[in-house]
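Need the bound structure for calcium ion, inputs here:
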Amino acid sequence: MKNTLSTLTLFATAATGFGFTLTVDPAAATTRIFDNYNDGADTSGGFNNMSAGGEAGGYVTVNMPAGAADPQWQSPTPGTPFSSATHPYFRINSRGSVGGGSQVFPLPAAGPTVVPYGIGTAFSEVQLSFSANAPLPNGSGLRIDPLGGGGGAPTVFDYDYIMLDTVRTIGLAEFDHDGAMDGWTMNAGISGATTTAASSSFTATTAGVDPILQRSGLSIDTNVFDTIEVRIAFDPASTSRFEIFWGTNTFPGPAGGQSVVLTNELIRDGGLHTYRIDMSDEAAWDGNLNILRLDPLADGDAAAGRSFEIAHIRLLEGAAIPEPSAALLAALGAALALRRHRGR
Ligand SMILES: [Ca+2]
Ligand SMILES: [Ca+2]
Ligand SMILES: [Ca+2]
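Answer from helper R.:
Posting the output first, comments after.
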């Protein structure tokens, strides 16, 4: 089944010569945004010994009083039904004024399907799954018990997003609330950085020859998460390369020669496009990933001040992504060929 996909992707990456394959604007693997709490309308409900705290800035707040017994809330109430058969995985980005042990249940709640996770005091995404529970649950929403046994002091919990995934996914950046950096840092080569819930994206302008956006301190098994996906828009005036560096415990980085370079493959129409990069054939995509670095544009082009926008940066379990149909691949291949001809 790999052969069909390679026909498309080898063409797209012929200029790069690296051990990876690129697919531009593939079918999304994260097909349900359960709630991003970005519209300012607070639909939290189903409270037990908790209360609504409002929704603003791209997240919803719920309150828990001191000594609350079995505190819980529901989101949304009611919601569109979901099936764990088609969406076995989900991610929650949340924080509490106090950290502790949280629990998630599909609604209607049933004991055996509880999924535990640890909530911290800074926004952090956890990757969860109902798939360990048989039979796979369906539901119309989630019940969340933010602090299983309650707490001694009044506590506030914030929820940035809940996304349902078709394959195992890590949201290294979703940029889904006002000011969110999701653990990424940048150098002076990037200016005017803004993240808003309204766009669920990071926008900025390059200001030097070597703009850098990076996230370190990771520990992610590259054998499982073998695919990088970046949804990004480039200034139509831009001309230079978009480069992705990485480092692992066995292949430390960032290091020269250990990067994905995309130049002619970029669609520079100012709109967001998804670049999905399968790293599974890359020898240095090995061990545990500990850093990912994005250099959006470079050299004099970057110094001229180019705008760019990033909607998300994710890692996917590429082996689990369904292969597109041959007909779709042919259409995509034709579109890429046309685009490349126009670019000459
Ligand atoms: Ca809302
Ligand atoms: Ca949000
Ligand atoms: Ca986003």
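Comments: Confidence is low (pLDDT under 50) at residues 1-17, 334-344. The first strand starts at residue 21 and ends at 24.
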